[in-house]
Amino acid sequence: MTYPKVYIILLNYNNWADTIECLESVLRNDYPNYQVVVVDNNSSNNSIDYLKAWTEGKLDVWVNPNNPLRSLSFPPVSKPMPYVYYTREEVENGKNFDLEEKLKSDIPEGVTTKYPIVFIQSGNNLGFAGGNNIGIRYALAKDDFDSVILLNNDTVIKRDTISILVNARLEFGEQAIYGGRIYYYFAPEKIWYDGGKFNEWMGRTVHLNMGKLKTEVKNSQDIKEVNFITFCYVLIPKFILEKIGSLDESYFMYVEDLDYSYKVWKYGYKLYHVVNSEVWHKVSASSGKEDVSEFSAYWIMRNRVRFIISRLPYVKKASAIFFLIITRPFRFLFFYINEAKYIINAQIRGLIDGFRK
């Protein structure tokens, strides 16, 4: 059987410890033909030095022995692990990649990749879209792959997570993008994302089965069509990248996954949710949603408005804006009662800037 090469792209920003835990889980997955690319988004805490030290066997991260997910990333894989380091300019100007071939013979026993890790320094904080696009451009420059997988660095995966997702891609074809089921890391049986649904009339997305326990969900299909995939974990074939392009960097953070999903959907391609490809993500399980910061409140609102204005047809655009406006008083009252006035201010600024830009 032929196993097409996939690139697994992680984006790091001041979060090297989570990135290392994620890498420890990725480097023991059972798919036989993958290469890991870590893009550092110009971290201010010397993240890239910590990541290099980890590959050299000089540093490990502590995972609580009582953590039920500990076995996914522990014990540490063998070191040293060969790596190459590029700047963004080297990648974009067509760096000579010969060193990678020479390092392939240095892969330690027990590590399931046959390629060195690639570290790329962005030089600036380019946001989620811009940082991941560097990794995508690197893969396109190499032109030796079938698909890229974008994986949040604050996740861990099972041994068969990647192989199940790639097998779905091989079964259903290159004219689609693919996502998997995502659980809360701190409540490992509780679902955060189980496929996504986008309502054009309301201009909003929902995560299916969010907050439900795995045992509460009965699946009639292992693979099903959806119209929204979170880019916390997504497989994008090269075919789609060549037809749709890379992520829209004008979003900076948030909603870029909706924008890309929507373009794939409207181009007539498919979006598949692969239930058995499982990931655990470090989001808050107590509230049933991610914690809202002033930063996220601003960017989500700004980009939601921008998406509605730039992508939706006129009638649905008007409907989505109307829905957004009439629901704000109720949301603002909720935040006011919960002493989160900063979120109200951030959303108002995001709303205004979304219409301006």
What does this structure look like?
The chain is an alpha/beta fold and 357 residues long. The chain folds into 2 domains: 6-281, Alpha-Beta Complex (Spore Coat Polysaccharide Biosynthesis Protein SpsA, Chain A); 294-356. The chain has helices at residues 16-26, 47-55, 88-92, 98-103, 127-142, 161-172, 238-244, 256-266, 294-311, 314-337, 341-356, and strands at residues 6-12, 34-40, 83-87, 117-121, 147-151, 155-157, 176-184, 187-193, 196-199, 204-207, 223-225, 233-237, 270-281. The strands form 2 sheets. Strands 1, 2, 3, 4, 5, 6, 7, 8, 11, 12 and 13 form an 11-stranded mixed β-sheet that branches. It has a two-stranded antiparallel sheet with strand order 9-10. Helix 1 packs parallel to helix 2 and helix 9 packs parallel to helix 11. The protein is globular, with a radius of gyration of 20 Å. The termini are far apart.
